[in-house]
Write a sequence for this structure.
């Protein structure tokens, strides 16, 4: 009898993004992800542009300072078997954002963070996203957060499955937006 395969969660870890890892992530994004999965719309040109690549680099450099840094955000590389597979982030959000998704918040207003993830196409559907989300939720607990919110679209059923499996309550809006709230246990 052969041993059962190792679950994806045992093969996934988060890593701080330094310049070397950032270069790998740029290459992965260009090769295996749609720019709309990775960056906001920028400029008029479609596809990967110099502007989008510059934004990607600047974004991850600014998030390197962490949740208590100037950007109030932290991003990590998602590694699968030691190879960059994508990125995941946490960003402290203002009370108005938390209230938008029906969230409870602390007196300090910093008990809620938003998360987002992108994975290269070759890593999707393999449990990598679920494992990465579990790791980032553990980071949120260590940071003293009470809940994590996320936003996706009605058509992104993969993201909805990942969020639901992490215990998120989903709210579907009339415009096709889906909001999620994961309440964290202390």
């Amino acid at each position: 009898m052969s041993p059962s395969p190792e679950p994806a969660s045992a093969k996934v870890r988060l890593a701080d993004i330094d310049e070397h890892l950032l270069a790998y992530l740029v290459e992965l994004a260009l090769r295996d992800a749609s720019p709309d999965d990775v960056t906001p719309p920028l400029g008029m040109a479609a596809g990967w542009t110099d502007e989008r690549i510059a934004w990607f680099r600047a974004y991850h450099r600014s998030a390197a300072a962490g949740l208590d840094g100037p950007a109030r955000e932290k991003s990590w590389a998602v590694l699968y078997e030691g190879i960059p597979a994508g990125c995941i982030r946490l960003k402290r959000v203002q009370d108005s954002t938390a209230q938008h998704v029906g969230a409870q918040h602390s007196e300090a207003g910093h008990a809620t963070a938003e998360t987002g993830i992108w994975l290269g196409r070759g890593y999707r559907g393999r449990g990598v996203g679920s494992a990465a989300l579990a790791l980032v939720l553990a980071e949120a607990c260590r940071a003293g957060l009470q809940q994590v919110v996320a936003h996706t679209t009605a058509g992104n059923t993969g993201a909805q499955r990942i969020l639901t499996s992490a215990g998120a309550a989903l709210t579907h809006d009339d415009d096709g937006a889906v909001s999620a709230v994961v309440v964290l246990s202390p």
